[in-house]
Write a structure and sequence with these properties.
The complex is a heterodimer of chains A (about 525) and B (about 220). Chain A is α/β, with parallel strands linked by helices. In chain A, about 35% of the residues lie in helices and about 15% in strands. In chain A, strand 8 (about 245), helix 9 and strand 9 (about 265-270) form a beta-alpha-beta unit. In chain A, about 50% of the residues are buried. Mean pLDDT of chain A is about 90; it is low at about 1-20. Chain B folds into 2 domains: about 10-60, no CATH class; about 65-225, Glutaredoxin (3-Layer(aba) Sandwich), CATH 3.40.30.10. Helix content of chain B is about 35%, strand content about 20%. Chain B has 7 helices and 8 strands, in the order H-H-E-E-E-H-E-H-E-H-E-H-E-E-H. Chain B has helices at about 10-20, 50-60, 85-90, 110-125, 145-155, 170-175, 210-224; strands at about 65-70, 75-80, 85, 95-100, 130-135, 160-165, 190-195, 200-205. In chain B, strand 5, helix 5 (about 145-155) and strand 6 form a beta-alpha-beta unit. The longest helix of chain B is centred in the middle third of the chain and has 16 residues, at about 110-125. Mean pLDDT of chain B is about 80; it is low at about 1-30 and about 35-50. The chains are: A alpha/beta (about 525), B alpha+beta (about 220). At the A-B interface, strand 2, strand 3, strand 4, helix 7 and helix 16 of A face helix 1, helix 2, helix 4 and helix 7 of B.
């Protein structure tokens, strides 16, 4: 339902023609076939693959292999060619074939051969398609852009970094200094590339440079989150950007994510504990699910030990959201949940917690609080197990946790304490050698990786500055995972929108999380 | 202009030394396919047909059959319902086994391998009830049991076909023990492994075989 809504939004920009006459190609119907494998009748496409295996479009679609952008993919030795726009409708010297027309495209799709009659490999399904369906698919393929997408032109590619005003100015400046330095350096290193002699594939030919000057705008969003969308729209109207790079918010990333989906803008790796992604989102790539992941880790750990009752303590917006996430996980499992919210200016209500935990014996306490709230507790935390969240404790801050009478645990969604982190080390060396003060290692390293990932993808898309292609490229850029700082076991893949998927629950001894026997939990 | 292979180490060095990686290599006519660090698509501007090698790979006989012995690691994996499964017990039982490696967000070969596995089962008819079919995910971080369950349903897998995931390091051990480890999931090659309870060796089918081919191999090598 939600996915349908998102796709519905994505339809903006194409002529909507729900009742297209049978003889008129309908790119919207073509898109549904391409992306979802559903024919105009609502039935799945049918095909034969690898000689004899029947498949349905709902098992995999054109997009599964050729990418959302239509720019192709490769896996091992298997190459899937690009089929977007004029790459299909013009002759291809490298594939040694003439241009496709409607008829040769129909033969390609039904019989699996190119316009010269050469057969495709066994991976390309042989589809059953009517002439109208081929025409609609052809219309959609023709509509796939080879760029440049909005925000890029022949000389410039424009980015913006969104920072919301609930972030302190020193955090904002620390993060922006990393991004500005990266962008300035990128521009310095490539500014003369445009003057290199053109190097066409045939002697004497020249071609335009693939280098663009990077321009980084800062979009500061102010006031309550309900007003962010309008501010984003205004900024975007006055200077469209190709992608959002990094960004920081203490609140929900939801409104910014919705903006990116509706304008189809890549939103690369913001620093947020509340991603609030929707099912089927394509445009925002996150490091992790943040506090929702911590909630899942706690829920898994509690379930494994058969705990049947939980008291949650929290103050502030993000902690309240974490508590709500854990509540819904636990209630699905039939665990009793008691919420104890308090005002952040007040001390942590230890007494209230103790009395609620005695009511249901064997209850666990989950403290969705930061280190400030744990300072100067008047009495020790009550007996029974206690959980903390590493995200709220803040991986950039050190210190011991308060004494507990029972066992204590930390839901830890970052790399293990003391674990080697060569990606973070690389950032540290990079920053130090540029005299950047590292006051907020987590957020600054995240911003650095966002820039690195954007640069990696743009390098690989070359002259095709297409937003969807950049995201397809990042989905397949397995080599990038080694450069992800802080987050453990990062992986990418089509449709995967969180680099890290799991975490650990670490026991606390002497006020410090222990890594002995840490078990990876992938909820 | 020379071809400039873009390998992982090259990128790593460029990134390490300069922080950004200007590319002088990517100026060919067609977009590079969306995958990382492959030597297959350097800037081969001089080559008339840069995909000749791939085409040859597609057009040569589609699979090869060899025999090898493997030690199945003693690891506990999870099936699509989330239940723990001792891999060695599962694979070294008194039933013949057909095994492959896939992942659910894979483009290109995995959905096709899953489709041919399903077709093999159809071709085998009732004989399939005597065989244990196993697909192990090589992307265990994403392919949690619930994801595998949905994938299995999408391909109409049915009883007798188990989908497995587990911890990353353990899956890597499994892949290594079957000589199926390719470093990155994006370098993954089509492979089907068959085992008869009567024989300590595994039959290794490298390449993309059709459902009928696979059914024929299972029938003749495991069931007859």
């Amino acid at each position: 339902m939600l996915a349908a809504l998102v796709l519905g939004l994505a339809f903006v920009g194409l002529p909507a023609s729900p009742v297209a006459p049978a003889d008129e190609p309908d790119p919207v119907a073509g898109r549904r076939m391409y992306r979802e494998g559903i024919r105009p009748s609502g039935e799945p496409l049918t095909a034969i693959v690898a000689g004899d295996a029947p498949i349905l479009g709902t098992q995999f679609s054109c997009q599964s292999c050729h990418g959302r952008s239509g720019m192709g993919a490769a896996e091992g030795a298997w190459i899937v060619p690009a089929i977007a726009g004029t790459l299909l409708s013009a002759p291809s010297p490298s594939h040694q074939r003439p241009a496709y027309d409607r008829e040769s495209l129909a033969r390609a799709l039904r019989e699996g051969q190119d316009p010269t009659g050469r057969p495709f490999g066994p991976l390309m399904p042989r589809y059953r398609l009517s002439d109208d369906e081929v025409a609609s698919l052809a219309a959609y393929l023709a509509s796939l852009s080879l760029g440049p997408s909005p925000g890029a032109d022949d000389t410039v590619i424009r980015f913006a970094t969104v920072v919301t005003d609930d972030v302190s100015p020193d955090v904002r400046d620390a993060v922006l200094e990393v991004l500005r330095t990266y962008v300035d350096e990128k521009n310095r290193q490539t500014r003369r590339e445009g003057r290199r002699p053109g190097r066409g594939t045939a002697p004497g030919t020249t071609r335009p440079t693939i280098f663009r000057e990077w321009v980084l705008d800062e979009w500061t969003l102010t006031g309550p989150s309900e007003g962010w969308r309008e501010q984003l729209e205004t900024r975007y109207r006055s200077a469209p950007v190709f992608a959002l790079l990094g960004g920081v918010s203490a609140g929900s990333w939801g409104p910014i994510g919705r903006f990116c989906e509706s304008h189809e803008i890549p939103c690369l790796l913001p620093s947020t504990d509340l991603p609030d992604a929707a099912e089927g989102d394509f445009y925002t790539l996150h490091f992790s699910r943040g506090l929702e992941l911590d909630a899942d880790l706690v829920a898994s750990h509690l379930a494994a030990d058969g705990v049947r009752a939980v008291v949650q303590v929290f103050c502030g917006t993000a902690p309240a959201r974490a508590a709500a996430a854990l509540r819904s996980r636990l209630e699905e499992k039939g665990v009793m949940v008691d919420d104890l919210g308090f005002a952040c200016e007040e001390p942590l209500p230890v007494e209230g917690l103790a009395s609620r935990m005695t009511v249901s014996s064997g209850a666990a306490a989950v403290l969705w609080v930061g280190r400030e709230e744990l300072v100067g507790l008047e009495r020790p935390l009550p007996p029974g197990r206690v959980y903390f969240s590493s995200t709220l404790l803040d991986p950039d801050r050190d210190g011991t946790l308060p004494r507990t009478a029972g066992p204590a645990y930390v839901a830890h969604s970052f790399r293990l304490p003391g674990e080697a982190d060569s990606a973070l080390g690389r950032f540290t060396v990079w920053a130090r050698s540029r005299r950047i003060e590292i006051a907020h290692p987590r957020l600054q390293a995240e911003a650095f990786f966002a820039a690195l990932a954007a640069n990696h993808a743009l390098t690989h898309v070359g002259r095709y500055l297409v937003r969807d292609y950049v995201l397809d490229m990042l989905d397949h850029a397995q080599g990038l995972a080694a450069y992800v700082p802080l987050y453990p076991q990062a992986t990418q893949g089509p449709g995967q929108r969180f680099l890290t998927k799991g975490g650990h629950v670490l026991p606390v001894r002497d006020g410090r999380p222990q890594t002995d026997g840490a078990v990876w939990i992938a909820p | 202009m020379k071809a400039r292979p873009r390998r992982g180490l090259g990128l790593a060095l460029v990134v390490l030394l300069s922080g950004v990686s200007p590319s002088w290599g990517l100026q060919s006519d067609e977009p590079p396919p969306a995958h990382d660090h492959s030597a297959h698509h350097g800037n081969t501007a001089a080559a008339g047909d840069e995909h000749a090698a791939h085409r040859a790979a597609l057009e040569k006989p589609r699979y090869s059959v060899t025999e090898d012995r493997y030690t199945v690691p003693d690891v506990e994996l999870l099936d699509e319902s989330g239940a723990p499964v001792a891999l060695r017990t599962l694979l070294e039982s008194d039933r013949p086994v057909a095994l492959n490696f896939t992942f659910t967000t894979c483009t290109t070969i995995c959905p096709v391998m899953t489709a041919t596995f399903a077709q093999m089962r159809r071709e085998l008819g009732d004989a399939r009830d005597g065989v244990r079919f196993v697909s192990i995910s090589i992307d265990p971080e994403y392919d949690r049991p619930a994801v595998l369950k949905e994938y299995a349903e999408r391909f109409g897998a049915g009883a007798g076909w188990t989908f497995l995931t587990g911890d990353g390091p353990e899956i890597a051990r499994v892949l290594q023990s079957f000589k199926a480890y390719a470093g990155s999931k994006m370098n993954h090659r089509p492979l089907t492994l068959l085992k008869s309870p009567r024989d300590p060796s595994w039959i290794r089918i490298d390449g993309l075989a059709s459902g009928a081919d696979l059914a024929h191999e299972v029938q003749s090598r495991l069931l007859d």
